[in-house]
Amino acid sequence: MHVVIINGSPRVQKFSNTDKIIQSFVKGLQVSGSTYELYSLSNRKEWDAASEAFSSHDQIIFALPLFVECVPSIMLEFLETLPTERQQPAQMSFILHGGFDEGHQLRLCERFLQSLPAQLGCTYGGCLVQGGSFLIRMRDDERMKKAMTKKLDAFSKMGESFAAHGNFLTPEARKFTGPEKNPKIVHLLFRLFIKRLVRKNFEHFAQQWGCTRPLDDKPNSIEEKR
Ligand SMILES: Cc1cc2nc3c(=O)[nH]c(=O)nc-3n(C[C@H](O)[C@H](O)[C@H](O)COP(=O)(O)O)c2cc1C
């Protein structure tokens, strides 16, 4: 099987969490001899080639981060450039991920993605859905290594599964999301302890990236200027 993969994130490939997910996914995909070609919509120079690949291949995966509860606008813009009819049949599948970890917050976007293939003359090959991707790009940091390696390894396994089944319509793909909603006790623990820990981690990463002001700094707010 040959798969065209299109990264729908506006973030440049080097820093894109979606790209890290794709790199893990294709490791699994390639185990049984499948091949792939990858296009990143953050690089406008790749749009023509991505469009050509979309029209001329029969297995297409869009991998995208949730942006403000739905599809990033750069991907919507690209979709509008695609033809609505095609010469040969094709299947469109999706890898949808987002920063927050509960599954339910990705379902609205999943509904939109379900409706998309028919509008572009394709069939729907399912949507792999998972939250909790904020810190994937920090996977080499000691604090994050274990959790992020585990997360990315799971995407490799789903690459193997996609190569075997040809879609994400399997029970294992549905199970992949994890909890739709965290139990009340987790919400309580989050408010009491975990929030502070998450905040500390974000401060740590911000400092590593050269940020010298507090994360809740509001230099332009009227109150602070008084
Ligand atoms: C402008 C913006 C909006 C976002 N909106 C959401 C959101 O609504 N829900 C969510 O879970 N994550 C949201 N995120 C987090 C991203 O989905 C997450 O960080 C993802 O890993 C980014 O992937 P990328 O690095 O490939 O762009 C948002 C991020 C940005 C920058």
| CATH overall fold name of the largest domain | Rossmann fold
* Ligand list: flavin mononucleotide
Output mean pLDDT. Answer: 94
Considering the protein shown, what is the CATH homologous superfamily of the largest domain? Flavodoxin domain
Provide the gyration radius in Å.
Answer: 19 Å
Helical proportion, percent range: 40-55%
The helix-and-strand class reads: alpha/beta
**Cα end-to-end separation:** 63 Å
The CATH class of the largest domain turns out to be: Alpha Beta
Q: Which architecture of the largest domain would the CATH scheme give at its second level?
A: 3-Layer(aba) Sandwich
Overall number of strands: 5
For the largest beta-sheet, the strand count, sense and barrel status come to: 5 strands, parallel
> If strands are numbered along the chain, what order do they take across the biggest sheet?
2-1-3-4-5
Count up the domains.
2
Proportion in β-strands: 15-25%
Order of H and E elements: EHEHEHEHEHHHH
Shape: globular
Explain the overall architecture:
- Strands 2-1-3-4-5 form a five-stranded parallel beta sheet, with helices on both faces.
- The protein has eight helices and five strands.
- The protein is an alpha/beta fold.
- It folds into two domains: 2-180, Rossmann fold (3-Layer(aba) Sandwich); 182-226, no CATH class.
- The protein binds flavin mononucleotide.
- Residues 9, 11, 16-18, 65-69, 98-100, 105, 131, 133-134 line the site of flavin mononucleotide.
- Flavin mononucleotide binds next to α1.
